[in-house]
Amino acid sequence: MKITQQPTDDTLILSLDGELDASSSVLLDTELSKSEILNNKKVLIDCQRLNYISSAGLGVFISHLQRFQDASVKLIFFNMQEKVHNVFEILGLDSLMTIVPSQAEATAI
């Protein structure tokens, strides 16, 4: 798993590349735990190259949801592959998290 950061004015885009499993979820948790991430109004998660997500990977996002909400930071997923999106849907996480088809839509929120 490779995580690339692309900061803009008040938005941080994290691009996930590879498989988000138990071992790589530690890397993601480290990124999302950084205090400076809360200086953004939005954190956009680009899932275009994310081809697998395990329960550990989902758990990382779930564990940070309240922290982001308390800091008024929007967490938005975009470019999600269908098989990854299905995992979010099956678990009902699509109702807890904002998932949109494109970066343009994610930026507009």
Automatic annotation (TrEMBL):
Ranges where the STAS domain occurs: 1-109
Domain of life (superkingdom): Bacteria
Pfam families: STAS (PF01740)
PROSITE patterns named in the record: STAS
GO MF terms held by the record: anti-sigma factor antagonist activity
Matches recorded under NCBIfam families: ant_ant_sig
Family indicated by similarity: Belongs to the anti-sigma-factor antagonist family.
Protein name: Anti-sigma factor antagonist
